[in-house]
Structures are given as C-alpha cells and as structure tokens.
Amino acid sequence: MTLHSSRPAARTELLHGTLDMLILRTLQWGPQHGYAVGQTIRAQSADVLQVEAGSLYPALQRLARRGWVTSKWGQTDANQRAKFYRITPEGKRQLLREESRWTELVAAIARIMSPATGPKD
Amino acid sequence: MARLGWLKGRRPDEQDFQDEIRSHLEIAADEHVAAGADRDSARLSSLRDFGNVTLTTEAARSVWIPRWMDRLGELLCDVRHASRVLARNPGFSLTVFAVLTLGIGLNATVFTLLKSLAFSPLAGVDGSASLAVVLNETTAGRQTGLSYPDYQYVRDHDRAFDGLFGSRNFNVNLGSGNRTAPIMGELVTGNYFHQLGVRAQLGRTVLPSDDVAPGQHPVVVLSDTLWKGQFGSDPDIVGTVVRVNTHPLTVVGVAAPGFHGTIVGYDVEVFVPIMMTPQLLRSGGIDPQTVLFDRQASFVIVMGRLRPGTARADASAQMTVLSSQRRRDTGLDTAAQALAVVPIWRSPFGAQTYMLPAVMVLSAMGALLLLIVCANVTALVLARGISRRGEIALRLALGAGRGRVVQLLLVENVVLAVPAALVAIALVPLAIPALLSGISDVAPIRLYLNLSVDRLVIAFSVLAACGSALVFGLLPALRSSGVDLLSVMKDDLSPRGAARGRFRMGLVVSQVAVSLLLLIGAGLVTRSLDAARQTNPGFDAADVISSRIDVSSNGYDQARGRAFFAQLLDRLRADPATASATLARNPPLTMVDQGARRVTIDGYTPRRDEDVTFLSNIVAPDYFRTLKIRLVAGREFENRDDAAAMPVAIVNETLARRYWGGAEAIGKRVRVASDEWRTVIGVARDVKYSRVTEAPRPYVYLPFLQTYQPAMMIHARGSAGVAPLIERLRTHVQALDPDLPAFETRLLSDQARATLTILEMAADGLFVFGAAGLALAAMGIYGLVSYTVKQSTHEIGIRMALGARSAEVVWHFLRRGLRLGGIGIIVGTVSALVLTRLLGSVLYGVSAIDPVSFAGAVAVVVGGVVVATVIPAWRAARTPLSKVLRP
Description:
The complex is a heterodimer.
Chain A: E1 2-3, H1 18-27, E2 32-33, H2 34-44, E3 49-50, H3 53-65, E4 69-75, E5 81-87, H4 89-113
Antiparallel strand pairs in A: 1-3, 2-5, 4-5
Helix pairs in contact in A: 1-2, 1-4
Chain B: H1 2-10, H2 14-34, H3 39-50, H4 53-64, H5 67-88, H6 90-119, E1 131-138, E2 143-144, H7 148-157, E3 161-174, E4 181-188, H8 192-196, E5 200-203, E6 219-222, H9 224-229, E7 241-244, E8 247-255, E9 268-273, H10 277-280, E10 301-306, H11 312-330, E11 337-343, H12 352-387, H13 389-397, H14 402-442, H15 455-481, H16 485-489, H17 494-534, E12 544-550, H18 558-574, E13 578-584, E14 596-601, E15 613-619, H19 623-626, E16 631-634, E17 648-652, H20 653-660, E18 669-672, E19 677-684, E20 699-703, E21 711-718, H21 723-736, E22 742-747, H22 748-754, H23 757-791, H24 793-801, H25 806-835, H26 851-878, H27 881-885
Parallel strand pairs in B: 4-9, 6-8, 15-20, 17-19
Antiparallel strand pairs in B: 1-2, 1-10, 1-11, 3-4, 3-10, 5-8, 6-9, 7-8, 12-21, 12-22, 13-21, 14-15, 14-18, 16-19, 17-20, 18-19
Helix pairs in contact in B: 2-3, 5-14, 6-12, 6-14, 6-15, 12-15, 12-17, 12-23, 14-15, 14-22, 14-23, 17-23, 17-25, 17-26, 18-21, 23-26, 25-26
C-alpha cells in the first residue's frame, strides 16, 4: 500500500498491519469483493491511499488463513462473477484490538509531533 | 487425514485465485468503460493498474505455502536441471565423479577401520563407543586388568558407572582330540550380557545366577557364528554338552547374531561364566586354585557405561578415591598401582592399542587427500564455469538472484557428489580386505573387527561428499555468479581471466604441496618399516618353526605332560632334519605383553611405588641355542636343572644392569610372584619381546623342568632349511599321540613379521594415498598447462614462425610448470617439517625430518610436475604452423 501525498516522491510506507485493519474495517459494512475493497479504501481516504493488487490479495489470503474473513463466490450488482469476502466474529474482535492499538499509536505520534499542545502550554 | 483435508479445504487452489484475479480485471475494465473508455483500452488500463500478476500470485501463494516447501520444490527442480546439464557433459561429469569416488572411497575405507577401533568398536552392541574400561595403572604406566576381588570391590563401591561387568578372553580348544578347533572364548561375569544389552536368540545368556560358586557353573553360551558354522544352526543345541579345553560344558543359549565379544580384534565364539576360570583359563602366572581370590591375579577386564551426566574425569576422580579406600580396607600394599578409567578406544586390551596410531595417521592423510581432490575438482568446475558464463549471465539478466544461481551451481556439484559417495561406499567392502591382507595372513588367530558398512560409514561418506561438494563448488559458484554482466556481453575476458588464472595456479600449488606432504609421510613410514625390519630382534628366526601344543586338551596330567614333552624333544633332536629343538611358554614378538609377573630382586629394595612387574617366559633346555640368543654370562638351562635340583633362573642384560649395576649377576637371586627364590645361572642378551619397536626392558626366564605348563610352543631349528621340518614335527607328534592337535604351526619368521604388519599396512596405505595425491596433482598441472597452451596457441605460432625451435617452446611452458611446482614443493616441505612430528607414534628408527624421505618425495613430485607439463607443451610445439596461424 502506498500513501499518496501532494508530492509523489514523499511516498511513505504505512505501518505494518495497518492494511489488515483497513480491510477489516471496510468489510464491517458488509461483504465485498477484492476490487471493491481497494476502491472503498481509496474513496474513503479521498484518493490518498491506493491499495495495489499485489498487496491487497496477499493480505486477503492472510486474513482468510487466520480465520478473520471468509470468502464465497457470488454476483455483483452488474452481474459480474466475483469472490466476496465477509468478516467473521473473530475478525471483528481483531478489528477492535487493531483499532485501539492504532488509536494509541496515533496519540503517541501526535504527542511527539506537536509537543506544544502538552500540559506545559 | 482429517487434518490434511481441513488444510486442503481452507487453502485456495491456484485456479480459484486466477479466477479471482480475472474477475478483478473485468470489474475494473467495466468501470473504465462506464467512465467512457473503449473496451480495449479499458482492458489495458485495468491490467496496468493491477501490476505484476505473477508476483501477486507468488505473494498470495507464499501466504499459504511454507517457505521451506517452496524451497524444496526449487531444489528438486534444480536437481532435475543439474542432472540434465551433467548428462550433456559426460566427459566433465565422469572425471569429477571418478576423482570424487577415489577420494571418498579411500577415506571411507580408512574411516571404516577407524570406526571398528573407536567409534563402534563392538559389533552387536549399541553405542559401544561410550563404554569405558576400569583398569589398574602402575607408576611405570603399565596397565593391567583387575583381580576378581578388586572387580567385586569396585563394582560394589562405584557410583560413577551404570553397572560394571568383567570379562577375560582365553584360548579355547573346542571339542577333543584331533577334532579340536582353536577359537577364542570369553569368561564373563553374570551381568555381562545384561549390561551390554545383548540378548540370546536361543535359550538364555550368562546370568547373575551363573556367578555364584567357583567351578560350579559348567555352562556355555555360543556365538551366532559358531552355532551356524560348527553346529549347523542346530535348533536343539541348548542342553547339549560341548568340550571347552576338555571340560564338559552345557550349552544354555546362543547369543544374538552379530555379537563377537568385547575384545576388539578377537572373534569371541564361546562365553563361559567367570566362575569357571580355575577350570578353563591357562595363562602363565595364574594359579587355578586361587585365581578368583588372589588380589595379585589381575586378569579381569572391567567395563561399564558411565551414568548419564557423569564425565570420565569425575569417574577417574572417584576411582582414585576408591583406590586409597581399597588400600585401607584390604590392608594390601598397592601403592605402585591406582585405578584409572579410560574410554574403550584407549583400552590396552585389544587390537586398538597397536592399530589405532597407524589408523589415525591414515585418517589424517586421508583428509589431506580429500583436500587435493577438492582442489582438483574446483579447478575442473571453475574451467567449466568459464564456458558457462553466457548461460549464467543470461540467468542473472532475467532476474535470478545471485543466491539462486549459486544454489543451482552447488546442486550440480551435490548431484555428482552423492552418487560418488554411494559408489565409494559400495567399494569399501572390497578395499578393506586389501588393506588388512598383510595382517590377516600372519595373525595367529583370525582378526575380527567390526568392519560392517553401517550407518556411521554411510553418514560419513555422504557428509564427506557433500562437504567436499560445498568446498569445491562454492568458490567457483560465487565467482561464476559474480560475473559482470557488461563484460560478458562485450566478451571482454582479459582482466577477470587473469584473476581466474591466478586462482587456478593457487589450486595447483596447493595440490602439489599436499601431495608432497603425503609422499613424505609415506616415505617416513616406509623408512620406519625398513628400520624395524633391519632391527636385530636379538634372536634368529630363520630356519625355525614354531607350533603350539596343549597336552591338557587330551586330559594329560603333569606327569604325562612332562613325559610327552620330553619324548617329543628327544625325537625331534634325534631327527637329522633338526639342528636343535626346545619349548617355550610364549614365542617372541607376540604384539601384546605376555607373562607379566611381579619380580623380587635380591639385594634391591624397590621404592614403595615402584613397578617391579616384568615379562617372563618359561623355557626348556636349548632355548637360547635354538633361537641363537647369546648369553653374555653363565650358562643356559640344561636337563640337570629339574625339579630335584636347585631352583634357577636366567635374566636379561637390562635386568642385570639395572638392579645389580653391572656387578656379577651369576649367583644373585630373584623371586617371581610368590614362587621360591631362584639363583641366576645366566644373563642373556636383550630380545624384542613383544614388539620390534619396544625399548629394552627387564625379563626373566624360568626353566620348564622346574615350572610345568601344559600349553607350550615347540621351537625347532632345521639343519638344512625349514621346509621339511613342519611335516617332521607333525609326524613326531602323531607318533606319540595321534589325538593331540598341534596349532599355529608356522615359521617363526612369520611370527616376527606379524608385529610389522601394522607398520606395513600404514606404509601401503600411505603409498596409495601419496600416489593418488600425486596423480591428481599431476592432472591439475596438466589441465592448467593445457589451458595456458590453448590460450597461447597464437603466441606459439608467432614465436615459431619467427624461428623459435620446439625445444624452446617446450622449455617456455616447462619453466612455468616448474615454477608452480617449485612453489608447491617449498610450501609442502615447510608444512611437512612442522606436520611430520605428528607421525611420531608410528615412526621408528627414523627422524620426523628424515632427509632421505624428504628428498625422495621431492624427486618424485618434481618428476610428476615435469611429465605433466612437458606432454601438453610438447604437443603445442608440434602443432603445424598453418593450423596455428590461421585459427
């Protein structure tokens, strides 16, 4: 996954495991196929996050192997055959864990990046 | 199965994943179309957006398939590929294969020998290398067994061992009369079989219940070989009675197949409870009545396995404590000796004592030979690597990682090495008899060693092969895979070619150096052998035969025995074919010390911890005349020195000089064990008693007429050659008692030769190694010179066109070859000066830096270098000019 900032050169690797969290989050609103997952993440991040297929599909396989998602072939609205991924209850628990870890991480980074907002102020 | 099914159910198959990707691409294309693109460009941009399909598939696959499984697949693929590549280059493949088979075969052979002495010394016993021997060590460093009471004491007080058992090998005459077969037996304690973990395949083994009352357990367990050979696998053997040294013993069982006793080198075929020692063991200095109670009768070899977690050092320390405790408990003065623990490979009671030093030297030399083999094959692989630079560059250009290419090249080497190892293993059973033939020919009793090609040998060979493959493959592989793509594509060979040339020269130099080292070793051992052969053993074995007769095997008592031996000597002496005849308890040069007895010397008080146990012999009149051992003072035993006369003895020069300081020894007195005091009537020249290489040591001769023994060696000197004598001896024995067998009838010179066979084996083995090493080094030089010549064809042509003569061209290359050889010789000589010191254990009468051996080896190597250089150079010089100048 790559982060698209205004300057193409400043691409930054997202923290490891975050992609899994984003996929699980996307699937929370209902089953989706791989292409839609990628598109959703892109749309919701206002085109900042573009998930490449080379990262997305291995990630989906990883989640399936851990039992956090299940997959099933079905039909899209446009009557295309596609493989749909559904989050499992265990996957939901994992998402909660990831979210709190993420929140902590973001807060920690924020404290480092903007110390002016600390108690000293 | 259920588990596998579950795995399969959860793993998406390849097809499913491809379907998913296809659906992704179609959905994406649909969206592009919906956004207004035409169908074709939509398809293209969806593909472009997706990225590398193969890489994605691989990444997804790796989520499911463990890395090692993938690697295994790659490896199998490489093996298939390598086999095809090698089959396409049969010349190269066969050469490498042959060189490797030679190197590994020789090493596997020596390793098998080493295994039979050290790593798995007892056939049929699991983990026999972990056995340790408890023995008595005197202050003079002489190691003996324990007496039976000492064995019991140690067994009961020791806490370091997981149970100690004892045994003693003894000569067995199986059967009676002329049908007697001389075999080896072992007297064993009741826990012997249990502690060794050897079971009976029929009946039972010797049990603790057979270990109770002296003389009261007349039972015997047969070995598998004896049962199958002598008794035709008789299923009803248990319960039958066999005669062992004329004593009837009931067969109670047959030991498991493959078990041959615990004395390395002997094929033990009968196992008898140690309680039968008084009835069965006949050995100089052992009194049958007291043997099981006498603390001086150190005849038991004690062994056991250390408890888990106990180091041998701990066990030794415990034994030291036990020694002093034993001294206090028993009130015996044993200050001159202490208990010691040695691993079985250092046990002084078997063939390992005299064979291991030579075999260890051979092993070290084998390792050196393997180095030459590796260097040789490296050069071959490297040369081939040059011609494959294009292929490798292509692989690298197509994106193969360097590691992947190195792996491929290494696999090619392993594909050659493993079959070479397998063929080498198959050759071991053929090579071993050749190596040991000298020993088997002269050994008095069939030599038995655990020489089976077992897991250890196979593991060693395969490891050696794969290890070599890594050594000779890695460097060329790294070099080949490190090619600079640009230079290959531009076909620019010069700078790297030169570097590779230097590396190849290094390989040749190292081969020359190591083969020189091997040849120097071979030369030193051969010179030792010569020195040993030329050593005067102190007696003259020429024209003397020897034969062993045991009159007790026909139930003779002492009176009948004496009468028999007297009559036999009379008959032999009356025979015109005989110059003189005599009897001796032990022949000279027996390899192992025989008849060690504690000797008390009149007028000499030994220090409290001094070892005054010397070898001794019991001999009849005319012994010194028959063997031509010179007496420096006094006279030899005569018929008048019989039981009625004054007890007499003869000592050797070393004893006389050491204890009476050169004063007149005649008339002094000595006492052997608890025997009576004997007056010295003669002083004999020193003889090599056990081994040609031994140092002078004190020795005592007792007269047969005053010290009866039922088993004696006959020595007879022929008056006109030795050939008719063997038949004459047989006739005389038959005339006296047709049922009395004579064993080990042979020339005394053969007996003398037996002690040299180990040295002969080492010399032969080293010569094979040296010759193989030199041949390989010569091949290496030949290859390098041919290569250089080929590269310089043009230059040669120009030189010759300008008027150079062929001799000059040959000399040009010869100079280069000699320069390489010279460097190798210098390196080899310098390392030899340091390394030959390690040969000390097998050298005799020759310095480790013996100039003759060094010069000889250098001459041979120079010869090899010249031949290997001149042939290709000469061929180059003969090439017609037209061919050279118009390539």
